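debug: dumping io for the single-chain case to check the tokenizer round-trip. Nothing else runs in this session.
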Amino acid sequence: MPDEQGQQLMPAEDWVGRDIGGLHALASALFGFAAEMSAARHQDPVTAEALATVIGQTASILDGLAVDLAMIQSALQDEAYVASRYGVTIGTDGRPPPVSVRPAADATAASAQHWALAYRQVYEQATAQAQQARQHAATQLTALFAQLEPSPHALARAVRGAN
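debug: decoded output
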């Protein structure tokens, strides 16, 4: 299936990570902005250095998320490959097929059923890990950005200083 630029995407490219490449690209761009801010500190050294630090920390959090999601994705794809070798049909979105609870008719069906159940467990674990990784990154970003919000005392001083 082609993306917005007409490039072919691997079917499993976004099973757990959404746009992992986009996260890496955003992190790289932010690292570049952080470097530019550090280079511009001769104009306003305190503000430039503070912005560079925050931008760099944001980039690190996003890049860490992208790495975590890529590792989860890779492990899931490896498991999907193994399961498919045993007759399990994996959806293009990485989802496992429905598994019958009835006894298998023969050894081949029993093997496929076993591997389908095993893959379902791995898929559910990978989905949970990806959600945890995203939640952890969101918590880190929230804590980082909370540091940027001025305190009520700082706002009051700024208002008094402006008058």
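debug: round-trip ok. The two ends are 60 Å apart (CA to CA).
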